[in-house]
Amino acid sequence: MNRYTFLTAAIAAALVGVAVAAPQDVAQDGTRGKAERGQRMARFDTNGDGAIDRSEAAAHPRLAEHFYAMDKNGDGRIDAGERPQWKQGRRGGHRGGMGHVLKLDTDGDGRISKVEASGDERFAARFDATDANRDGYLVRSELMAAAEARRAEWKSRHAERMQQNFIEADADKDGRLSRAEVESGMPRMAKMFAFMDEDRDGYLRLVDLQHARR
């Protein structure tokens, strides 16, 4: 299992939890599992809006570490479509990752051709950009490199957005945010103010927000 797939699987387990049930208990466990997943989701989604934002993720280090990789559309929130999904009743059912790649490799030669990639619309749309050597095939190293490049791009976009939000919230333009400025300009971060104000001077600077994200 490659590093990216392992991390994705680990995050999925942290978010939704997975129970392995005996066959005769599947129906009961399915109902109970939904309730348990709902309770776990409520722990992450503290404002109950159906998504996990950066400030909510910051309270869970394991989730916060991989927030940007999961926030595929770069909107600063992990919604239902971005959270890893698992098939009921067994581990390893995450949609995507190495299992999905192996499924696309229909001839089993350890690489994905353009024809094979056409079986997945999103995968096919990224084919040319991922095919670094332009040989018409995707191999593991190319897929890993593309994933890392996308992660770097997401982080860059988030950093730019954070800086812009900071500038807009800094009403007196003194390069720092008071609690009142955070509550007014960045309300989702307000409940994390004390946690991020590590030096306890009553202000947040851009570097404080960046450290909290990491």
TrEMBL record:
Regions of compositional bias (Basic and acidic residues) in chain numbering: 74-85
Residues in the signal sequence: 1-21
Alphabetized Pfam families for the sequence: EF-hand_5 (PF13202)
Region listing for Disordered, in residue ranges: 74-106
Top-level taxonomic group: Bacteria
Residue ranges of every copy of the EF-hand domain listed in the record: 157-192
Record-linked SMART domains: EFh (SM00054)
Keywords tagged on the record: Metal-binding, Repeat, Signal
Family matches, as Gene3D superfamilies: EF-hand
Transmembrane segments: none
Protein name per the record: EF-hand domain-containing protein
Organism of derivation: Novilysobacter selenitireducens
